[in-house]
Structures are given as C-alpha cells and as structure tokens.
C-alpha cells in the first residue's frame, strides 16, 4: 500500500485583506502557480518567467517581505516562492504590485511536489528561511531539512549553486548542520546572512533570546553518481 507523503507544513488558509485580495485578483493569473499533489509534469522555469535567467527558489516565504526585498536587489535572477499560508501569498502579491517586480512568481502548495517537477541542475539557489522547527521529538520526521529532501534539492541545484537555510531554533540548527554535512554533494560555504534581510519574525526570535543560525552550503562540482529522488 502506498502511503501519502509526510507533510512538512501545517496547511493554513486564513483570510486575505481587501488589499491582498485585490492584488490576488490582478496578479495571480499571470504570476501564480498552483501545485497539485501528485502532479509530476515537468515545469519549464524559463517559460514560466518568460526569459532565460538564473533561478532562485524560496521555500516557505511567510509574508513574502524577505523574498520581495532580495528580488528587488537582484533583478538579474528570477525568484520563485512557494507557500501554503493564504495571507502570506496575498501580501507577497501586493508587494509585487506595489514594487513592480516582474521577475517573481508565486506558487501555492507542497514545495517538494514542486521540486520534483524541476529539471536537475536548474536552480541557482534555494532559500529555506525559518521553516517550521517541529520542536517535539515525535514530529521531527516532519522537518523540511531531512536527508531525502536535501538530496533532491541538491540535485536541482547547478554545480556551485547554494542552499541557504536559516533558523532561530538551536536544536534544529544542529540537526540541519548534521544533515547538510552528511550529504556528499554539498560543502559548507559559511554562516553568513549573505544579503538575507532581517524579518519581523526573526526579530521576535532574537527578542526571545533565540540565536539566529545561517547555514550556506554549495553543491560541489564533482558529484557524479549522486542523484535526488
């Protein structure tokens, strides 16, 4: 019997404000992508964005402030963000409308389902900023940064591409480092923020006394024989 995949997120809908709903109505048809469970149709990112350019994937963009800020400062790369939180999707769409960011696309659904649809070596960078830490031991299997997921993400990175994770939970930071260090196709770059803006969520964590950990790893060039799922 085939078991459904373990979810790494809480499905959260919530209500959009009028501003967010207006932005959704105006922009979703042109910049939105709904990721359906079980859909493995290959996704052509150049076609999605309408141009050939390096691609950055942000998994779980929250309210979208970080993604919008990084995209605004980096017009030479295309940014694809995926989230399940409806108000966050609405807020990012409003930011795209206000700031006229044409090189951002917004996906709704399971991030790993989306990653399965991408060609190997297609991404320039993957950002995983402050994912759900699932702090209870019985829920650790739901954490996004797991060996299988990391292998798949690494496979979708180009050689030299960067996987950048950040968390304000020390135990999760340790677990992340253990998983990333163990992947033979990744090597540690540094623990630098590398242009990642500080968020309100992050400031709350700092205010609560939780240290911020950034972990940046690069896909190594000599990774023949390695593959994702």
Automatic annotation (TrEMBL):
Enzyme class: transferase
Family matches, as Pfam families: Methyltransf_4
EC numbers for this chain: 2.1.1.33
Pathway given in the UniProt record: tRNA modification; N(7)-methylguanine-tRNA biosynthesis
Keyword tRNA processing (UniProt): yes
Record-listed substrate binding positions: 136, 168, 199-202
Catalytic reaction(s) noted: guanosine(46) in tRNA + S-adenosyl-L-methionine = N(7)-methylguanosine(46) in tRNA + S-adenosyl-L-homocysteine
Keyword terms, alphabetized: Methyltransferase, S-adenosyl-L-methionine, Transferase, tRNA processing
Domain of life: Bacteria
GO molecular function: tRNA (guanine(46)-N7)-methyltransferase activity
Record: residues binding S-adenosyl-L-methionine: 58, 83, 110, 132
Function: Catalyzes the formation of N(7)-methylguanine at position 46 (m7G46) in tRNA.
PANTHER family xref list: 3-DEOXY-D-MANNO-OCTULOSONIC-ACID TRANSFERASE/TRNA GUANINE-N 7 - -METHYLTRANSFERASE, PENTACOTRIPEPTIDE-REPEAT REGION OF PRORP DOMAIN-CONTAINING PROTEIN
UniProt family annotation: Belongs to the class I-like SAM-binding methyltransferase superfamily. TrmB family.
Protein name: tRNA (guanine-N(7)-)-methyltransferase
Protein encoded by which gene: trmB
